Amino acid sequence: MVYIPFWICAFAGAAIDIRERRFPNALAAACAVSAFAGVWLDRGLNTALDHACFAVIVCLSLVLTESLWRRHRQTPGIGMGDAKALFALCTLDPLGGIVAFAAALLVLALSCLITKSRSLPLLPFLVPIFAIIEVVGCTL
Fold first, then answer.
1. Could you tell me if 1 and 87 are in contact, meaning their C-beta atoms sit under 8 angstroms apart?
2. What is the pTM for the complete model shown?
3. Which among 108, 63, 68, 111 has a CA at the least distance from the CA of 85?
C-alpha cells in the first residue's frame, strides 16, 4: 500500500513519455519522493537513505557517461528523463532498477531494429519491466 503513489507516478511518466517524449521534472520528483517515503515506511530510514545514496551514485555515473557520449558523438543517447526515472527506480529497489534499466535498453534496441526507428521512448519499456521484477521479487 505504501508504494501506490510511486506506481501511479511511474506509469503516468511512461504514458507522458509515449505522447511527449519527456518525463516532467515535477512528476519525476514526485516519483522519487514517493519511492523514498515508501521505502522509509516499509523498511526504515537507514535503508531509504542507503537506496537514495546508491541512486545518486548511479545517476551521476549515467549523466557523466551521457555527457561524454554527447561530447564525443555529437548526438544524444539516453535522455535526462530516463536518468530521472532510473533515480526513482533505484531509490525504491537499487538492484531491480539496474536490472530493469539494462533489460529495457535491450528491449528498446530490439524494438528499434524491428520498427526500423532511430529512437523510441524508454520509459514505456522501463516501467513495466521494473514492475514485473518487483512482482516476481516479492513472490520469491
1. no
2. 0.91
3. 63
Model confidence at 140: pLDDT above 60: no
pLDDT at 40 over 80: yes
Q: How far apart are CA 60 and CA 57, in angstroms?
A: 5
Cell 546508491 belongs to residue: 54
| Cα 48 to Cα 56: distance, rounded to the nearest angstrom | 12
In eight-state DSSP terms, residue 115 is: H
- Angstrom distance (rounded) from CA 135 to CA 140: 9
Q: How many residues does the chain have?
A: 140
Q: Which residue has the cell 557520449?
A: 69
How is the chain split into domains, by residue range?
4-139
Q: Each residue of 53-99: pLDDT tens digit? A: 999 999 999 989 888 888 888 877 788 899 999 999 999 999 999 99
Looking at residue 79, its pLDDT comes to 82
d(CA 89, CA 55): 8
97 close to 61: Cβ distance less than 8 angstroms: no
Q: How far apart are CA 24 and CA 17, in angstroms?
A: 9
